[in-house]
């Protein structure tokens, strides 16, 4: 097994070293200083590819933002050069990532309003859906998340003219 649960043996049958754990680690990186009305784009990465399709659960959460500051319907894609052609279907907050894919993007559009609110932030959390790669015990019986099974980061929306305008593909437009 390559999930950290096996043992490493010497030729003499003596238990040695640390078990090999090839389960990938999730990370999330958001952009800062998003101009109100443009997209906050989060990059979600796996440090290793998976040999089978896998479900990733996605959750947006308010930090200092309020309801209406961003669109809770977001676009998930794998190729910034071809957003429309690489869009993944989001179902109940989850996406199915194809085998071998190690990076995808989540574009969340912020909302333009006429109220000055100052800098506000919100976060995206990504978590493996499968118990085998999500939980330390590989089953979820003890429900302890293993290190690397979840990634999260924040993005900041500003409405004072100092922010960057991002396209849905994460390109800085201004």
Helical coverage, percent range: under 10%
**What is the 3D form?**
elongated
| Strand content bin | 35-45%
Strand order of the largest sheet: 3-5-10-7-8
User: How many strand segments?
Assistant: 12
Provide the gyration radius in Å: 19 Å
Determine the structural class based on helices, strands and strand pairing: mainly beta
| Series of secondary-structure elements, N-terminal to C-terminal | EEEEEEEEEEEHE
Largest sheet: 5 strands, antiparallel
Whole-number mean pLDDT: 87
Task: Supply the number of helical segments.
Answer: 1
**First and last CA, distance:** 49 Å
Which runs of at least 5 residues are low in confidence (pLDDT < 50)?
Answer: 1-5
Task: Please give a quick description of this structure.
The protein is mainly beta and 174 residues long. The protein has one helix at residues 131-134; strands at 8-9, 15-16, 26-29, 34-35, 39-46, 54-62, 75-77, 87-88, 94-97, 103-109, 120-128, 150-158.
Would you mind describing this structure in some detail?
This protein has one helix at 131-134, and strands spanning 8-9, 15-16, 26-29, 34-35, 39-46, 54-62, 75-77, 87-88, 94-97, 103-109, 120-128, 150-158. A five-stranded antiparallel beta sheet has the order 3-5-10-7-8, with no helix packed on it. A five-stranded mixed beta sheet has the order 4-12-11-6-9. It is mainly beta and 174 residues long.
């Amino acid at each position: 097994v390559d999930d950290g649960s096996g043992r490493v043996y010497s030729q003499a049958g003596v238990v040695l070293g640390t078990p090999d754990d090839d389960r990938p680690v999730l990370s999330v990186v958001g952009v800062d200083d998003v101009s109100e009305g443009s997209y906050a784009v989060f990059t979600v990465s796996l440090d290793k590819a998976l040999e089978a399709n896998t479900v990733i659960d996605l959750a947006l959460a308010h930090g200092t933002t309020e309801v209406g500051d961003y669109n809770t319907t977001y676009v998930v894609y794998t190729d910034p050069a071809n957003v429309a052609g690489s869009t993944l279907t989001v179902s109940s907050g989850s996406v199915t990532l194809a085998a071998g894919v190690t990076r995808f993007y989540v574009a969340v559009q912020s909302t333009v309003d006429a109220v000055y609110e100052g800098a506000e932030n919100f976060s995206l959390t990504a978590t493996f859906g499968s118990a085998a790669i999500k939980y330390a015990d590989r089953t979820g019986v003890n429900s302890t998340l293993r290190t690397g099974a979840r990634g999260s980061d924040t993005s900041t929306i500003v409405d004072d003219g100092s922010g960057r305008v991002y396209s849905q593909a994460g390109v800085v437009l201004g």
